[in-house]
Write a structure and sequence with these properties.
signal, mainly alpha, 3% strand, two-stranded antiparallel sheet
């Protein structure tokens, strides 16, 4: 997978200003999955010694957080079940362009994986338990788990402007406080480190190396009988192509399209070009946030170490 949900798509025919606006519009919906790596030739001093977590470590941290939430909820008199966290395969398929042909051949864009996960959540023990509570207890459950503004809010400024808030007190907050060592510091560092793309995507999208690779990808798809200017158009069209089909038939259509996209991403070097340019532009445009990024990485490594102890307990 390339870049997770955070890296949006460019329209080949648009001017630079319009491209940047489209990218930033998608970024607003992209969530918080970010890889924080400076370019190898220009590492920020505070970041270069701090590695990223492996997927296995991320999964362990996610599970440890659930275990801590469970303990907190049970102290408050509620039941809470630890449910399976996203596997490595679940964490692929929703980025800017898919370039893993093997994965695409098995999972398409991960549509069936997401449908299965949603069904498991909807039919799972936590949802069943909450739905059986009285309205009053259901409200208290939600306040205990997620918090409420009445007990105070934390605020974090985003690099591209604006702020986000979260309740200061909740079982979710307490779990993160134990995992990361300081929930308030973690919240602010995480919101900076995972919202840096608006600072460099406009310049990246206008880079001729990127637009050439994107044009080559589009030409490759055209030769396969698929007329798309960019991978985002593929995602937009997927719903139309699978409308009214059974799950099995829809998966087959999705797989065929995903395999073509991934093959073209490799032959055109679109994925590699985008990765290289992201490293380059992130290093150049985000230096003033190097302390926040370093804090984010350091606290994630701390959480990984603590997660092993929590899992053993």
């Amino acid at each position: 997978m390339l870049f997770g949900d955070r890296f949006p798509v460019v329209r080949a025919a648009r001017g630079t200003a319009a491209v940047a606006a489209a990218l930033l519009a998608v970024l607003g919906l992209a969530g918080c999955a970010v890889t924080d790596s400076a370019a190898p030739h220009e590492p920020a001093a505070n970041e270069s010694r701090l590695r990223e977590l492996t997927t296995r470590e991320e999964i362990l941290v996610d599970r440890a957080e659930q275990l801590l939430v469970k303990a907190c909820m049970e102290r408050a008199g509620f039941r809470f079940w630890v449910t399976p966290v996203e596997s490595a395969d679940h964490r692929k398929g929703s980025g800017f362009v898919l370039d893993d042909v093997r994965w695409a051949r098995e999972f398409g864009y991960g549509g069936q994986l997401r449908r299965d996960a949603e069904k498991a959540r909807r039919d799972g023990p936590n949802t069943t338990y909450v739905n059986a509570l009285t309205p009053r207890e259901r409200g208290r459950y939600r306040e205990t788990l997620d918090g409420t503004p009445s007990k105070g809010m934390l605020s974090a400024a985003l690099p591209g402007g604006g702020t986000v808030e979260t309740p200061r007190e909740s079982c979710q907050a307490r779990a993160k406080d134990e995992l990361y060592g300081d929930f308030e510091t973690w919240f602010r560092a995480e919101k900076v480190a995972t919202n840096l793309t608006p600072l460099y995507v406009p310049d990246l999208s206008a880079d001729k190396r990127f637009t050439r690779a994107l044009s080559a990808w589009s030409a490759c798809m055209e030769r396969k009988g698929r007329s798309y200017a960019d991978p985002f158009e593929v995602r937009e069209d997927l719903g139309r192509l699978t409308a009214g089909l059974s799950g099995t038939a829809a998966h087959g259509v999705e797989v065929d399209l995903a395999v073509d996209e991934a093959a073209c991403a490799r032959s055109s070097s679109l994925a590699d070009t985008a990765r290289t340019l992201e490293d380059e532009y992130r290093a150049r445009k985000t230096r003033r946030f190097s302390d926040d990024i370093a804090t984010f990485r350091r606290m994630r490594l701390t959480a990984s170490d603590r997660a092993r102890d929590i899992a053993r307990r």
